[in-house]
Design brief:
The complex is a heterodimer of chains A (483) and B (182). Chain A has 483 residues and is α/β, with parallel strands linked by helices. Chain A folds into 4 domains: 51 residues; 108 residues, Immunoglobulins (Immunoglobulin-like, Sandwich), CATH 2.60.40; 251 residues, Rossmann fold; 40 residues, no CATH class. Helices cover 39% and strands 30% of the residues of chain A. In chain A, strand 9 and strand 10 form a beta hairpin. The longest helix of chain A is centred in the first third of the chain and has 26 residues. The radius of gyration of chain A is 32 Å and the shape is elongated. With 182 residues, chain B is mainly α. Chain B has one domain. Helices cover 74% and strands 3% of the residues of chain B. Chain B has a two-stranded antiparallel sheet with strand order 1-2. The radius of gyration of chain B is 19 Å and the shape is globular. The chains are: A alpha/beta (483), B mainly alpha (182). At the A-B interface, helix 1 and helix 2 of A face helix 3, helix 4, helix 5 and helix 7 of B.
Chain lengths: 483, 182
Amino acid sequence: MRSTTIGTALLSVSIVFAFIGVLYSNISYAVVSIVFVSCYVFAHREFSYELASTDLQIERQILDDMVFANEPVAVAVEVLNRHSTTIRGTFIDQIPEDCTVAAGSNRATIALPPRSILKLSYTMVPSKRGPHSIKGMTIERTDAYGLFTEHQVIEQKSDLTVHTQKASLDTAKKMAGREHLEFSGMGRNPAVVLRELEFDGIRDYVPGDRPRDIHWKMLSKLGKLMTKTYRKEGAVQTMVFVDCSSSMRLKTHRIAKVDHAVDLSMQLSNVLISSYHPTGVAVFDEVRVIDKVAPGLGRRQFEKVVKILRSAPGAMDVADRRSGTEELKDTRAVASAGAISASDSGKGEEFLTTLQGLSASKARSRLGYGLDGGIKELIAAGRGKEQLFIVVTDLMSSRNAVLLSAKLCKATNNRMLVVGMFDDWYGPDLQELDTGTIERMYGDLGDSIKLEGSIRGMGASFIRVGPADTAAGIARAIRRGRT
Amino acid sequence: MSERSWILATTLVIIAIVDLALFSTITILTVLAYVIGALGIALGSRYSYRNASVLGLLITGTAAAASMNFTTVLDMGPLLAAISGLMIPMFVLAWAALAPSGDMIPSTPHARRGITLSVVFAGVVIASEPVATFFLSLLLPSLTTRFTTVSEVAIMLVVLTASGIFLTRARKAPGGRETAEQ
């Protein structure tokens, strides 16, 4: 409880009067001082009682079903004063740090009478994708006599998960049916196997057969067209894994890799679903698969995918470029050492405790526990059916997990496509390059190429992307076998 | 502030000022200070501008304290004069200056209890001096004959400070929250 200017003035005058009373041997000043102190004490006790007996019921509603980054979201708040005392002060609904108020107001300065309701309605614009939380309501309380103030916080949490930008979702919807990952022309082998075919035999060509089923080698031997027939044909189940590890979440420049990964995954998933490929999505970090939806088809599948991608953790802003570079270096060092680390300030302690537990129990488990654990589970559930795993990652925190998963896919005759987000391309635009920076970037690129070689050596496909790459471009590259 | 409340407040202010004036040594400066103080309190209440009210209260308080000269409260006459001529009107003026707009009459039982407690508190502080003198006279009879005004003021201020701290102290509530004593 703090004294206001008026309260301090009243108390100061009381003290001065007390001194004057002593100095001039005049009881009148002491009596006036007693009156002022009595008022002060009375106001203090009243305010203490008001604060202790505060009984507010806060109901907050997020009026939009789907919340997008950089799009306004409407919020309505109702505050009911259930106690018999009036609450005076400024009511401020605590919006998340990454949000700004766009319209209306999240604050009101009023005296809220007993058993009455205060209504606030405003729209706020979240600037970042990821989970956000409105923690409660702050009340800058003032007492009825203007002598005291108090900063009171009433906790009433409301969570909202902000999706990526609306334009990204619109793009994903537009791409459905237009883009394909398979090439339907003659003589091209699709770079990524998307169909599960079981060879049956060869028969004469019948007009109407698909060009890709024609046995072209037999044409030179027999001089006539022959067609390959398959006993069973079905689309390969595809699972898109989105890396949400600490290195992906670190935002050093305009866009965080995790945000770009979410956009790409969403758009690629819709391309696959619209091409009748059962597709699912999983988000994972260093230690676990955070959430996933099993491969499937149908109208609702894309909505499920979008819902899962909404749960992907948000980006972490770096205070300045220097600290970001240091953190990146740390992440790189950790990734190269095969260990896992996280510097998320919010969940840091919990995260490190989890890691310590894991590293203490099983040394092997920490080598990409999240991704390879998820892939193992899917392979086991697939019962020998061929599957395709698309992993969107920056190959830093989850580098070992990706390598282990690629080895696993090769051993189990499954396919893997790694969409590698090259870290340097997501960094700030460097106007002046010094020798050290150039050498570092050269080294990074060399490392990335070596890593690509390792991944390809394990039978997986690889495509290196940057912030300018779109899902359409990636689909085109896959279709044309540039992976 | 509603019209009715303002009329009530203004009436109380005028009565209190008249009461103060009756017990004061009237000079031009005193009258001027009372008028300015009363205007400040009345207009501050009217327009819900507490700064003006409090300024008016302080001016009136200063003028009242300066224009009255009580040297003892051990005698009944000065004691009653101090209570009825200074303490009660100052309480009324303080209430008119500080009371929330439109709420001249306390609405909750707790507020009413609080006002009673404040008046009792002030009464106890004033009465502490005769009580302390009584007990001292039992223990040290010779001391009471040498009691000066400064000693009286000092006793009152010690009691004022001690009881003020006692009444505003914070203590742990059962839930662990730091709250003021109820």
